[in-house]
């Protein structure tokens, strides 16, 4: 398993291209775009169903998730430390507001003085050094109103960490301990997204119809479409990642 031991910088997330938007337009040849769309859509649905009106995405990247939130009728702010990401997001999602920097920046607090109804933190915490996670989540909690909801998604230890930009993957116990240490937050639900055994079976079949020598597109598409049923509400002992709904208590 890969372990990241040195701290990553903004240059490590330079967004030379708006990767998520490129992925959306590309031909689907792996399970990831299907799973990605599923867990982002689920996060948006959770936020929308709370009745929230204002939402901030922390670690918004190129704005793809923010666009989904805008389409759901929410007032959206995105924040990220990558200048390229915010430049892309500002162009691609004109109906949202964006800020490059940190939640604690005086300029940010002046621009957005009111706490938000909801926060989304999608596939970010695995990019944060373990020793910094509690403080990051406390800063996020400070931007959330009492009774507001934080939706956090992150990969599971069921999925081997081979990503050099991931410090670690999580299990349920670690996530619960982390949220408890932050204080003032309560996990109200944990859902599993993706299915590791299902992914393994998918690729065993795909290799016969999609490989370096040939591709039988109709069969490959059918197999990939079949993975959609494995994307949400999966058992936690086999899921590829977690979707946490967290309420701010005070």
Sum this structure up briefly.
With 250 residues, this protein is of the alpha/beta class. It has one domain (11-195, 233-248): Vaccinia Virus protein VP39 (Rossmann fold, 3-Layer(aba) Sandwich), CATH 3.40.50.150.
Indicate the CATH class. Alpha Beta
Shape: globular
Radius of gyration from the alpha-carbon trace, in angstroms? 18 Å
Overall residue-averaged pLDDT value: 93
Helix fraction by DSSP (H/I, runs of at least 4): 25-40%
What is the correct CATH architecture?
3-Layer(aba) Sandwich
CATH homologous superfamily, by name? Answer: Vaccinia Virus protein VP39
Structural class: alpha/beta
Strand content: 15-25%
CATH topology: Rossmann fold
What's the total helix number? Answer: 9
Oligomeric organization of the protein chains: single chain
The N- and C-terminal alpha carbons lie at a distance of 38 Å
Number of domains: 1
Largest sheet: 7 strands, mixed
Uncertain spans: none
User: Order of helices and strands, N to C?
Assistant: HHEHEHEHEHEHEHHE
Number of strands: 7
Strand order of the largest sheet: 3-2-1-4-5-7-6
Outline the structure in words.
With 250 residues, this protein is of the alpha/beta class. It has one domain: Vaccinia Virus protein VP39 (Rossmann fold). The chain has 9 helices and 7 strands. A 7-stranded mixed β-sheet has the order 3-2-1-4-5-7-6, sandwiched between helices. Helix 6 (133-142) packs across helix 7.
């Amino acid at each position: 398993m890969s372990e990241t031991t040195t701290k990553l910088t903004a240059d490590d997330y330079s967004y030379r291209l708006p990767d998520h938007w490129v992925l959306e337009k590309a031909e689907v040849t792996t399970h990831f775009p299907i799973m990605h769309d599923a867990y982002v859509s689920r996060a948006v649905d959770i936020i929308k169903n709370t009745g929230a009106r204002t939402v901030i995405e922390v670690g918004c990247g190129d704005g793809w998730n923010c666009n989904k939130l805008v389409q759901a009728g929410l007032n959206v702010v995105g924040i990220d430390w990558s200048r390229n990401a915010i430049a892309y997001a500002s162009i691609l999602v004109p109906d949202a507001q964006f800020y490059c920097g940190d939640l604690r920046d005086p300029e940010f607090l002046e621009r957005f003085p009111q706490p938000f109804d909801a926060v989304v933190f999608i596939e970010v915490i695995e990019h944060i050094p373990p020793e910094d996670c509690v403080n990051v989540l406390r800063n996020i909690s400070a931007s959330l109103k009492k009774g507001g909801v934080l939706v956090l998604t992150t990969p599971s230890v069921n999925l081997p960490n081979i990503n050099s930009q991931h410090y670690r993957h999580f299990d349920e116990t670690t996530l619960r301990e982390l949220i408890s240490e932050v204080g003032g937050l309560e996990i109200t639900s944990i859902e599993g997204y993706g299915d590791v055994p299902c992914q393994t079976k998918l690729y065993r079949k795909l290799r016969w119809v999609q490989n370096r020598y040939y591709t039988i597109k109709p069969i490959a598409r059918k197999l990939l479409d079949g993975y959609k049923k494995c994307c949400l509400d999966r058992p936690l002992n086999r899921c590829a990642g977690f979707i946490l709904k967290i309420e701010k208590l005070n």
